[in-house]
Amino acid sequence: MKALLLKDIISLSRYMRYVLVLLLILSVVPGFSGSSFAVMFASMLPLTALAYDERIKWDKLAAMMPYTPRQLVVSKYVLGYSLMALALLLSLVVGSAVGLVTGAPLTLESLASTVVVAAFGLALMAVTIPLCIRFGVEQGRIILMIVLGAFIALFVMGMDGVSDAEFLALARTLTIALPVVTILLQAASIALSIRFYQARHM
Question: How far apart are CA 71 and CA 136, in angstroms?
């Protein structure tokens, strides 16, 4: 597992350097949530790692190595979790440093919004990885865009006519259920990804 993670980190290292510079620049932009951007971006890096693997035909080489489908799949999730945690830590450090200089420290509201964005990023990762393993990265991206578009359209239609009090009550309920839903979604996504990988590569 460590070797698989190291492979992905090395392949993404140059890409992540540019993003780190961009994050540092955007952190000083007033009203911009650098932590939300960093966490959301990190959640999409496993997709980039899958694209690199697909480009170099990594699955053919991995078939000749002592890795199980479970290890190959779970390593992508661990990569995403690790990079999201690192992005959150770095962005909070940068945000705190900028806040000390500018006199605008991090607020509880900004931290709460980052947690919500992290949950959304995990949900996006849980949907993206199985799709990309099953259909390939390019087709997986297209299907993801269709699914997201349909979800957003249904959400907007469902929120039509909802009062502010009803929306706040729904938001509180979702926040309480967020940890359980996130864990269940990740477990289901990992199981589905392993099954898709076995069907496609074994």
Answer: 19
For 193-197, the CB contacts below 8 A with 24+ separation are: 193/73, 193/76, 193/77, 193/129, 193/130, 193/133, 194/69, 194/70, 194/73, 194/74, 196/130, 196/133, 196/134, 197/69, 197/72, 197/73, 197/133
Q: Which of 67, 86, 68 minimizes the C-alpha distance to 12? A: 86
Identify residue 32 by its one-letter amino acid code: F
pLDDT tens, residue by residue, 71-94 = 999 999 999 999 888 887 877 777
Q: Provide the 8-state DSSP code for 92.
A: H
DSSP label at 33? -
pLDDT, tens digit (0-9, with 9 covering 90-100), for 91-112: 777 767 766 766 666 666 666 6
Distance of alpha carbon 124 from alpha carbon 129, whole angstroms: 9
Q: What is the reported pTM? A: 0.82
